[in-house]
Design a protein that fits this description.
The protein is an alpha+beta fold and 262 residues long. It is built from seven helices and 15 strands. A hairpin with an 8-residue loop joins β2 (64-67) and β3.
Length: 262
């Protein structure tokens, strides 16, 4: 299918169209020249869009490797690999550790704001893992060089910045609250009702208003069926995961366990 027509069919807006057009060019360059090609960092929703594009192109499932610097990374680059390469170039993502003296002095927002104040865009920044006295930041190689030279503070907080190896990465434990209940079915609005302790009507309204994402992709259908492992997020409320689907009650309702991220 012609590129323009394909993008017209699968892109939901101009921003997504520009992203997918760029990704399509990179994919084709990899195939044509048989060289590795890497995208910028992609959000979960953007990764879903890229997978949908590759499906539409009839590309093999392993045509793109998503890598963000560590296992479990949320923001990741898409790596298109030539026939002679089996794994992405690990040097494409660099982890920098910014250490500071006062415990709890910086939040995720503080660090991101400081990085963007240095002239970086979100496209060149991966995950930011904030600990008590440090933050591990994943960036592209070009951005890492500039940050190592020039980044010495975030607001009034002095920083000591150095590159760290992947095995040194500090992933803070994710705090969650476990919620158990029964639902008539695994409809999206029913599971959201349990995960965020709201009425099913309120959950359905949030879906209809475009405030809900399933595994990073916007969903406008309250009756969509969800499955174990699906991550659901609601703008303004947070994120939860359907962690377990159990048996049924005598009234044919389904036992579920939902982990809400705190």
């Amino acid at each position: 299918m012609e590129k323009r027509l394909l993008l017209d069919r699968i892109a939901s807006d101009e921003e997504e169209r520009l992203l997918l057009g760029s990704v399509m060019d990179k994919y084709e360059r990899c195939r044509r020249r048989n060289v590795p090609v890497t995208t910028a960092f992609l959000s979960l929703a953007q990764q879903s869009s890229v997978r949908r594009l590759l499906q539409s192109l009839g590309a093999p499932e392993d045509s793109a490797v998503f890598y963000g610097g560590y296992d479990g990374a949320e923001r990741r680059q898409a790596h298109f690999l030539p026939e002679w390469q089996s794994e992405p170039d690990r040097d494409a993502v660099v982890c920098l550790r910014a250490s500071f003296y006062e415990p709890g002095a910086l939040t995720h927002r503080d660090v991101l704001g400081s990085l963007m104040g240095m002239g970086l865009t979100r496209r060149s920044i991966g995950d930011i893992l904030v600990a008590e006295k440090s933050a591990d930041i994943f960036v592209c190689a070009a951005a890492a060089e500039a940050l190592l030279r020039e980044w010495n503070s975030a607001g009034r907080v002095a920083l000591q910045v150095r590159a760290v190896a992947p095995e040194e990465v500090s992933v803070p434990p994710q705090r969650t609250k476990e919620l158990r209940d029964t639902v008539a079915s695994l409809r999206l609005d029913s599971v959201l009702s349990v995960g965020f302790s709201v009425s099913r009507g309120k959950a359905a309204e949030a879906v209809a208003r475009g405030r809900v994402q399933v595994n990073g992709s916007e969903c406008l259908k309250p009756d969509r069926q969800v499955a174990t492992g699906d991550v659901l997020s609601v703008r303004g409320l947070g994120k939860c995961r359907l962690s377990c689907v159990g048996g049924k009650t005598k009234k044919d309702r389904v036992f579920i366990t939902v982990e809400r991220y705190l």
